[in-house]
Amino acid sequence: MAKITLDNLAHSYLSDPAGEDDYALKELNHVWADGEAYALLGASGCGKTTLLNIISGLLRPSRGRILFNDADVTHAPTAARNIAQVFQFPVVYDTMTVRENLAFPLKNRGAAPDYIARRVQGIARMIGMEEILDKRARGLTADAKQKISLGRGMVREDVNALLFDEPLTVIDPHMKWELRTQLKALHRQFGHTMIYVTHDQTEALTFADKVVVMHDGRVVQIGTPEELFEAPAHTFVGYFIGSPGMNVIPARVEGAQAYINGASIPMARAYGALDGKVEIGVRPEYARLSATEGLPVRIRRVEDVGRHKIVRADFFGYDINIIAEEGEEIGPDMTRVSFDPARVNVYADDWRVEGEAA
């Protein structure tokens, strides 16, 4: 297990990058704790896999260092880093049986036969492949092969870190949930440092202790699922986390009031003078429709998704979403909306501003 330190780390795929825009991975300075489970979350092309490949040693960064337990491994080959990595698409030995595939990393390191047998049996039980342990991998479905890849990545107990690069892409939805649960159980049992790359917020939020949200080559926030939901550090986090995402509305902020087209929205915190692009962010869960209280809103449509209703509305010319309870009646007189003052976030040039209690 390892503490992983990213020290002034940055990477460009160009031989002579001229500026920040030429970097796929912009400067990072972070310490990831030994034994925690992290998810790298972001849209395609944001730098997640680049960062994972630098951690694993498949890619050497353009500048900066990476340390495992304070030892510089920036130039160390993958084999010397003592990690296990599972890729997006299955990598298995077709001529071997499932049992032989799972045992391969342990046999390579000279583990005792009794230990190998016990460990392989336990991992096979975890991934639901006990009944086909002696079947050759050739001819198995893509999701079965990926389960073998997952199992082979998890079979070693002595690794510094387990790295997963969108490993459940080819797995059917029901099995995805089951395997995520098993990965969390494995983490609780052995305390490996785990890093899990995904573009799926559900996978990230249900797997990780801490979610590392990436956008345009940057880490914009590291936090628990609750922190990402309640206090997004960047407007991208607000958009990306939640379904639907946070409402972000241009506003003028003075003290504990936000003004949109001259209409006032109360806030629980007060702010000084703000420069640049100023916006407020409010989760749809913290907006409420009313016939009498709040500011005018025009409902465009209502979508019933079973657990609740999503109200799509026009608010002073801006599209906003409002979450209504499943049993809540939404009549034609519901023409006003109010926001929970304690849940209104303020952003300047996309970054959250910390106010003072009003």
From TrEMBL:
Keyword ATP-binding: yes
Domain ABC transporter: 4-241
CDD domains, alphabetized: ABC_Carb_Solutes_like
GO cellular component: ATP-binding cassette (ABC) transporter complex, substrate-binding subunit-containing
Keywords tagged on the record: ATP-binding, Cell membrane, Membrane, Nucleotide-binding, Transport
Pfam families: ABC_tran, OB_MalK
MF terms in GO: ABC-type ferric iron transporter activity; ATP binding; ATP hydrolysis activity
Stored InterPro entries: AAA+_ATPase, ABC_transporter-like_ATP-bd, ABC_transpr_FbpC, ABC_transpr_MalK/UgpC-like, Mo/tungstate-bd_C_term_dom, NA-bd_OB-fold, OB_MalK-like, P-loop_NTPase
Residues in coiled coil: none
Family per similarity comment: Belongs to the ABC transporter superfamily.
Protein name as annotated: Carbohydrate ABC transporter ATP-binding protein (CUT1 family)
Native species: Rhodovulum imhoffii
Lineage: Bacteria, Pseudomonadati, Pseudomonadota, Alphaproteobacteria, Rhodobacterales
